[in-house]
């Protein structure tokens, strides 16, 4: 059984470890430098741009993933931004879908008309996930360089909530 609830401070070590493992594996997130727990709290739990952040918890009470919903200055006011991270070891099937169910309800309740997800073009798993959640291609930012200079396109997908 998957339990989805708002992230709490005590979830930060596990959630931060999930994000840092994804960064270490490489190829799926725009982030290339690991997060300290302090930076993680500022970015996902207490940031002024945060609308919500939920965790998916497995039957052992362990965080299996998290999903952040927030605002972004380059998006219209009625469009929220979303980011999803789930653990790669001991994958919890259905965690992403369960997280999105709660996040979508929150976005609608807050009056957003759409949700934006920006994904690296080489992140087939992330692109597929957002497609399954009903997002559609919206725009492409071409050749955004990684730290080593490698250009990678970023695909923005949108979900219409109206």
Describe this structure as you would to a colleague.
There is one protein chain. The chain has 162 residues and is of the alpha+beta class. It has a single domain (3-160), classed as Aminopeptidase, CATH 3.40.630.30. Helices cover 29% and strands 34% of the residues. It is built from 4 helices and 7 strands. Strands 1-2-3-4-5-7-6 form a 7-stranded mixed β-sheet. The longest helix has 15 residues, at 95-109. It is globular. The N and C termini lie far apart (31 Å). The mean pLDDT is 94.
Question: What labels describe this entry?
Answer:
about 160 residues; alpha+beta; Aminopeptidase; seven-stranded mixed beta sheet; 4 helices; about 30% helix; about 35% strand; globular
> In the residues, how many domains can be counted?
1
Order of helices and strands: EHHEEEHEHEE
CATH architectural designation: 3-Layer(aba) Sandwich
CATH superfamily: Gcn5-related N-acetyltransferase (GNAT)
CATH class wording: Alpha Beta
User: Which band does the percent of strand residues land in?
Assistant: 25-35%
Average pLDDT metric: 94
Uncertain regions spanning at least 5 consecutive residues: none
The main sheet orders its strands as 1-2-3-4-5-7-6
| Beta-strand segment tally | 7
């Amino acid at each position: 059984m998957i339990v989805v609830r708002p992230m709490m401070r005590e979830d930060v070590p596990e959630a931060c470890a999930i994000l840092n493992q994804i960064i270490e594996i490489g190829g799926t997130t725009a982030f290339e430098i690991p997060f300290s727990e302090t930076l993680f709290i500022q970015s996902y739990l207490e940031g002024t741009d945060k609308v919500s952040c939920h965790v998916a918890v497995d039957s052992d009470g362990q965080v299996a993933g998290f999903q952040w919903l927030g605002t972004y200055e380059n998006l219209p006011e009625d469009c929220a931004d979303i980011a999803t991270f789930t653990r790669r070891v001991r994958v919890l099937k259905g965690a992403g879908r369960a997280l999105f169910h709660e996040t979508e309800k929150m976005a609608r309740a807050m009056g957003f008309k759409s949700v934006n997800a920006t994904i690296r073009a080489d992140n087939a798993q992330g692109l597929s996930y957002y497609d399954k959640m009903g997002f559609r291609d919206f725009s492409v930012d071409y050749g955004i360089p990684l730290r080593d200079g490698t250009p990678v396109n970023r695909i923005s997908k949108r979900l219409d909530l109206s």
